[in-house]
């Protein structure tokens, strides 16, 4: 079984790299891309200057904490390193090279800068996907995990967002990998998996601080899987590991932790038009639901909806108690996040990416569990090797 898990994970990673790195710049740039090109240029420079003892007024580590409210540290770090190396080489080999100005769509080197900014994000996302596939294969079987991998690999919205210079896809990959690590640690009782789950969630917060919206549901998941007393203890450890990762990987937290967190929280609230607002809460929430319902039409494929809706219904009848508990955990984490995101005045369909692609794990497991009916099992067994049909 372990060999087949490795084979499937490796296959998915290779296909992911091929489909994403080919025509990586096929996604048209927009204003947010220029914002990230700006941020990734400055963040590594600020950090390296100050860690070497240099100081420039207004460009110290504390200032670095105000570059982005997200905070987007993973993009600023990984993309910052790759673009710095690429630009250094480009300056040596191309005497005409000039860095692209902000919102300059006519820049002849825009494709070059976007490619090397996106490149490390694709690599990291692909490796996280392979790791997650490996873990989910042990929980839900090769067949069900393969169905889910097809969604991530080929669903148009997934392809689009994973080739964009933005936070959404890599944020989702850190979250789903963290959740899978914790659930697998319950299965095999491995402390390193539990610790890694906390580290991965720390990276999710470093990518998009809105990841804190997952924490209430994660608390109930710990209680569900560990009981009240042990669950609270493990949840506390999980938070400490995640926050330690966040602090260690974000230099502004070393010199101005309170100011940095305050900036993130206040800025995040400000861009959502102040969630208190004048409209009653229920009206704002209802308007959000209507808005997303309109966006969802035509943005996901028919096979995706078949898997999510029909598979989700079938998942209710899964008999394996441990598998069902894991599916319930995944459902709680991603449906709660969806409910929280809907409160915000600032609405984009990509904000729902983690929820829909996370919940699709449940539908994939439900579809694969059709095998509990002997006639369908014999039918599939006539052209699919039996070893792929076993958990």
Provide a short characterization of the protein structure.
This protein is 73% helix and 0% strand. The chain has one domain. Helix 8 (191-207) packs across helix 10, helix 9 (215-226) crosses helix 10 and helix 15 (321-341) runs antiparallel to helix 16 (353-368).
Radius of gyration computed on alpha carbons: 22 Å
Order of helices and strands: HHHHHHHHHHHHHHHHHH
Into which percent range does the helicity of residues fall? over 70%
Classify the secondary structure makeup into a structural class.
mainly alpha
Distance between the termini: 8 Å
Describe this structure in words.
By secondary structure, the chain is mainly α. The chain has one domain (2-389). It has 18 helices and no strands. It has helices at 2-21, 31-51, 61-64, 73-93, 110-154, 156-162, 168-188, 191-207, 215-226, 228-248, 252-255, 257-271, 281-296, 302-315, 321-341, 353-368, 374-381, 386-389. Helix 9 (215-226) crosses helix 10 (228-248) and helix 15 runs antiparallel to helix 16 (353-368). The termini are close together. Mean pLDDT is 87; it is low at 274-278.
